[in-house]
């Protein structure tokens, strides 16, 4: 029986164990360094506000959202102005409050399913 192979493996296992231990020590050292760095960064940040420093509700109470119908600002036609408008003449694409503030409702027999114009399942 040839034991040279076993002796080589046994001699190499000590070096392997040493590499694993050294690698583990390096990983633990990097984790400790990262933890300490995180603590230093947290100490440099501003503190969190106390409960008494939080914003308060206005005296009038909470503000609710409002709903309104909007309609787009019309762009003048080239026939009206005699020339085409350039982008900087258009300005912001705004809208204005609509005169009619009633909510649109579905009417029976209109639009059907997904705009097909059919009766919609009748």
TrEMBL record:
Membrane spanning stretches: 12-35
Keywords: Membrane, Transmembrane, Transmembrane helix
Keyword DNA-binding: no
Basic and acidic residues composition-biased segments: 44-57, 96-106
Residue ranges, annotated region (Disordered): 44-122
Biased composition (Gly residues): 112-122
InterPro entries: DUF6479
Protein name listed in UniProt: Secreted protein
Organism: Streptomyces mexicanus
Phylogenetic classification of the source organism: Bacteria, Bacillati, Actinomycetota, Actinomycetes, Kitasatosporales
